[in-house]
Amino acid sequence: MIFPKSVSSPQEYFSKFFAMEPQDPQITWPLINSISSRDIYMHHLYSKAQNSASRKLKLELMKELGKMMMVDEVFAFFLDTYGSNLHFCREKSQITDDQDQDAECMDQFVPQDFECLRSLIATYEDNCGKFDDYSRKFIKYLVRECEGPTMEHIEAKEKLR
Length: 161
Description:
Elements: H1 10-18, H2 25-33, H3 40-50, H4 55-78, H5 114-128, H6 133-136, H7 139-147, H8 153-159
Helix pairs in contact: 3-4, 5-7, 5-8
């Protein structure tokens, strides 16, 4: 994480953020902006469970984390990778000046083969349940598989079970 020049250390950055000094958007915005909209429910449960002695809230958070881990495992298997590699860009554009952080993510495909996509989504939902906010961020990999297949359609469906 890159810290603004107005702070001297990560400890100062986080202490200012958690002290809620909204007058300095250079401090608060990078941390707020780093939370994916697909993870909001988990963050909501975490903040509620952290500030409550309720066992029910903590169990609900554990259940949500378990669902997220299951989704990660399914798509890690589907993509033949480790779960820890799922949230990184799968393909970066070619760059000429050796500045890897400036490369654009090329993991975006426009769906055209809707029959294939419907089939993969139906297979996932039949075996793993409906797509929720968190699992929707992995639909792009189903689209990628339909638009530029790396395996047979039958094999792709088997990997989603």
